[in-house]
Amino acid sequence: MTPAEHARPGGAPPPIAVSGGDPAGIGPEIAAAAWRALSAAGSPVFAAIGDAALFEAQGAPCARIAQLAEAPAVFARALPVLHRPLAAPARPGRPDPANAPCVVAWIEEAVRLALSGAASAVTTLPINKKALKDGAGFAFPGHTEFLADLCGAGAPTMMLAGPTLRVVPVTIHEPLACVPALLSAEAIERAALHAHQALRRDFGLRAPRLAAAGLNPHAGEGGAMGREEIELIAPALARLRARGVDVAGPLPADAMFHPAARARWDAALCMYHDQALIPFKTLDFDEGVNLTLGLPIVRTSPDHGTAYDIAGRGVASARSLIAALRMAAAMARARRAAAEDATQDGSDGADGEPDREPDAGTGSGPGSARRAGSGAPTRPDRGSAPGAGDARS
Ligand SMILES: NC(=O)c1ccc[n+]([C@@H]2O[C@H](COP(=O)([O-])OP(=O)(O)OC[C@H]3O[C@@H](n4cnc5c(N)ncnc54)[C@H](O)[C@@H]3O)[C@@H](O)[C@H]2O)c1
Ligand SMILES: N[C@H](C(=O)O)[C@H](O)COP(=O)(O)O
Hints:
Pfam families: PdxA (PF04166). Its main location: cytoplasm. InterPro entries: PdxA, PdxA_fam. The protein has helices at about 5, 25-40, 50-55, 70-75, 100-115, 130-135, 145-150, 180, 185-200, 230-240, 260, 275-285, 320-345, and strands at about 15-20, 45-50, 60-65, 80-85, 120-125, 155-160, 165-170, 210-215, 245-250, 265-270, 290-295, 300. By secondary structure, it is of the alpha/beta class. The protein has a single domain, classed as Isopropylmalate Dehydrogenase (3-Layer(aba) Sandwich), CATH 3.40.718. Helix 5 (about 100-115) crosses helix 6, helix 5 (about 100-115) packs across helix 7 and helix 9 (about 185-200) crosses helix 10 (about 230-240). The longest helix is centred in the C-terminal third of the chain and has 27 residues, at about 320-345. The chain starts with a helix and ends in a 48-residue tail after the last helix. The structure holds nicotinamide-adenine-dinucleotide and ligand 2. Nicotinamide-adenine-dinucleotide binds near residues 126, 127, 143, 290 and 317.
């Protein structure tokens, strides 16, 4: 069943499945804090997948549920938990390899629930990749790549979206020394097409504007400081423009994030992780959301990590997680609306694809540009800073 078919009477969407993350990190305390805030607000409804004792230790009343569908009935009075016990007691700031397989299993279960339609989206609490590698032989650099594998999807795209800006790193969790070799026209075009589709379908922008950074200082300075811009990036951008994607660049990365420059684009396509995430976390750390594009499910996460240095002290902010839950709900709503429209007009629901190319190569098939994503987005197409304000339901 799809999330739409799982929708409760009155049109309420299925709950969001929240994977419990690293039990030694700040995940349990921010999940409890997010439940306090969102249960008071009434939505979005979510359920945690993890050891209920972790959340109870944060002072949150927990309701151990047998299935996700029970979450809405208890959400106002307790944090719904699909109780999956840890192998060893959790100690803040001190990951235990014995618990790593549980953490991986919680992510797998959240994805299964979303793929089945029982969950409208997945929001992940932070993991420590090294702890999972050491304890469970986790072979992925992060959730992003793991989720794509679990979903049987092609290469995924990472986007970070916040109140001030959106960024998309073309290469994701790669050592800097490997970036030039891994940067391909295919990767640039795929990330741009995923971003273009998401901006239309999930964020409601009718005519999204992308801006691509160069790889080298001064975007290569006409070849004097590197040739990737001339040989790789500019030709890829030209092909994207021919497909109807509005993308500027390659631009010098150091000069594209100041306020006047940011006003000219809706998302920045960056060539490597820190080129994207340094400006993002500098400006939007507190309410930033990490989302994965190119999956058949909605996935969001807070933009921060396990924060072992403050875990268990009760000082962690839940604002990024709350923004991630709200954005997940808004994206799921937009995709349901697009799917319903598609059912009515006989198209495939893959709205948000570029105008001039039937196969955008995003893994979601051909689409049209008749309308931008419906439902979730509220931000006007132009004239306001790009961000996640549209997802604050
Ligand atoms: N989505 C994810 O699962 C995710 C995201 C980023 C990093 N990580 C992982 O987390 C681990 C630690 O990474 P890191 O140290 O680079 O980044 P981090 O985000 O965990 O911490 C960076 C700094 O920000 C602070 N901080 C983080 N979240 C906070 C919050 N909610 N409230 C207040 N302060 C907060 C921390 O105390 C620390 O000083 C790494 O293993 C990394 O891979 C996971
Ligand atoms: N690159 C992300 C960040 O620094 O915020 C982080 O590692 C999360 O990645 P996953 O969502 O793939 O775990």
